[in-house]
Automatic annotation (TrEMBL):
Keywords: Oxidoreductase. PROSITE patterns: PDH_ADH. This is Prephenate dehydrogenase/arogenate dehydrogenase family protein. Belongs to the prephenate/arogenate dehydrogenase family. InterPro entries: 6-PGluconate_DH-like_C_sf, NAD(P)-bd_dom_sf, PDH_C, PDH_N, Preph/Arog_dehydrog, Prephen_DH. Residues 3-284 form the Prephenate/arogenate dehydrogenase domain. The keyword Oxidoreductase applies. Gene3D superfamilies: 6-phosphogluconate dehydrogenase C-terminal like domain, NAD(P)-binding Rossmann-like Domain. Coiled coil: none annotated.
Length: 291
């Protein structure tokens, strides 16, 4: 049973998400961060430390932990893995929360072969919470602790989606990189067309207002998060190229094709949606009823 956890980077949004839920589940949590501890970590114990240069105090915390969560940027996680492997108990579990899983999975296999490890990627903004949302899970080294944690995440209301790292990164590129790129491109096109957002909102149908809402959410967010989505995933460039190619194909069809050609495009899309077509259509109707 997971009784003691260390959350590295627990003062950040993702770290707080896991810290709060672990505390609520009765787990004793110590938050580790290089910054001076503040009150943002609630009831968790706090320790100032650098996971890439483990001192004796941090080593003691790590040695007593059943679970260590790395809610840190990729360079920090990759640099820390070897040192963590030397400090963790044989039955402890190492978790990363990175949005790209390939590099960290390879590093864990190479530098921590005896450590139970799983990569978790909450596929939502931390402020939204786990309930009713997917958490991608890439099991690197399976074990009792791994299964215990995944079961615990499901008690938080999340749906655990198990993937290998290659499929995870490809799906992340499709569900995050591609979507964000489409929304950002919509916004950049508005600036190119010199259409003020307030003018568009006044006359816009629900689809345009939905895109404006998505654009505003991204534009109000942390640039580093969206940069990482676009820059960090090796599958990101092919996703953006596919988007650009799709816009060119649409333009070619409309400007040089026929209505029948356009109908063929929609038929292709309906076929791709398959049995999920009705679900997504009804979801859209429900969303539009609120806009």
């Amino acid at each position: 049973m997971i009784r003691r956890a260390v959350v590295v980077g627990g003062a950040g949004a993702v770290g707080r998400l896991f810290t709060d839920r672990l505390l609520a589940s009765g787990v004793q949590v110590t938050v580790v961060d290089t910054a001076e501890p503040d009150g943002s970590t609630g009831r968790a114990a706090r320790l100032r430390g650098d996971v890439t240069a483990v001192d004796f105090r941090l080593a003691a915390e790590l040695g007593h932990a059943d679970l260590v969560v790395l809610a840190v940027p990729e360079p920090v996680a990759l640099k820390a893995i070897r040192g963590l492997a030397a400090e963790l108990r044989p039955d402890a579990l190492l978790v990363d929360t990175l949005s790209v899983k390939g590099p960290v999975a390879r590093a864990v296999r190479a530098e921590a072969p005896g450590v139970q490890a799983v990569g978790l990627n909450p596929m939502f903004a931390p402020s939204l919470g786990f309930e009713g949302r997917p958490v991608a899970a890439v099991v690197v080294h399976a074990g009792t602790r791994t299964e215990e944690l995944l079961a615990l995440v499901e008690t938080w209301g999340a749906t655990v989606v198990r993937l290998d790292e290659q499929r995870h990164d490809r799906l992340a590129a499709a569900s995050q990189t591609l979507v964000h790129a489409a929304v950002l491109s919509f916004g950049l096109a508005l600036t190119r067309l010199d259409v003020p957002a307030e003018d568009l909102r006044a006359a816009a149908p629900p689809p345009a207002n939905a895109l404006l809402a998505l654009l505003a959410r991204i534009a109000s967010g942390t640039p580093e998060v969206y940069w990482d989505v676009q820059h960090g995933n090796p599958e990101a460039a092919p996703a953006r190229k596919a988007l650009a190619d799709a816009v060119r194909r649409l333009a070619e069809t409309v400007e040089h094709g026929t209505q029948a050609d356009f109908t063929d495009l929609l038929t292709e899309l309906r076929t791709h949606l398959g049995t999920d077509l009705a679900h997504h259509r009804d979801t859209c109707a429900a969303l539009f009823a609120r806009i």
